[in-house]
Amino acid sequence: MSLRVAIAGVTGAVGQEFLSILEQRSFPATDYKMLASSRSAGKKVTLAGKEYTIEELTEDSFKDMDIALFSAGGSISKKFGPAVTAAGCTMVDNSSAFRMDADVPLVIPEINPEAIHTSKGIIANPNCSTIIGIVPVWPLHQANPVRRMVVSTYQAVSGAGWKAMEELKHQIKDVLDGKEPQPQAFQHPCAFNVFSHDSKIGENGYNVEEMKLVHETHKIFNDDSIVITATCIRVPVLRAHCESINLEFANPIDVDEVVDLLHQAPGVTVVDDWENNYFPMPMDATGQDDILVGRIRRDESLPDNRGINIFVAGDQLRKGAALNAIQIAEHLV
Question: Which residues, including other chains, have CB under 8 Å from residue 135's CB and lie 6 or more apart?
Fold first, then answer.
């Protein structure tokens, strides 16, 4: 059986991660097509020892393709989505273009893999902060319904792509050399600085990133009753997001039960060493497939043992983006 996969946006940070993970997981494709803008056409990339020439992304790119992994931005996904499905190819899209479309499944394979098979040709990958936050929350929610989530994110610059990652490196050097940092990828300097997530603020005072976390969690959990509030912050970390998550449950729950559930949860590694004060950190999460979870403790401000605090760290480019998409593709296969 032949299986042909197109990768759209292959030169970007997530696109490069696609290549690495496909090779690491021995994805069973028989051939690949590498796609990017006209500026990158003709360049070479290598996957599993084979060299491929990048082609310009056009509406004719998906003929005879089975799966298209997209990470080229929302406007590009919207433009080429109809061409992908018309060719009989399934799009797994990493942008926000289709996430809240009622006809498009929004999937985290550890949570709702059954939704993959309701696809009409497009499957959406959730936002990175959503994936990293709710993979460890799901097994707890199954055991004891979550009634309220309070999420504070500490998001690495990798969420804004290669240019932002390079900008942080250069700004760190500039500041240490006594120079004034010159922001371009962000509105504010990212070196030695912390600022509100660089997405548009809505009329309710929440930015787009915060509302993505709310709406996407409701859709993936298929439960709009959970009350969720989020504050999303950009921090001077190169790669891997962290999140502080406060959970209020319908029924009492103890810390030992939470720890046991998380130890058994797919896609989760518990890092919770109280004695040595060792908990999830971006430097440990970088390059890892699992979400690291720690600081597991009771919320003593809530009565009847209904509250739990956790802290998570996850690689934004892997599980927060490319890995999740490839796991979806593996289910399609």
Answer: 108, 110, 111, 265, 267, 268, 291, 314, 319
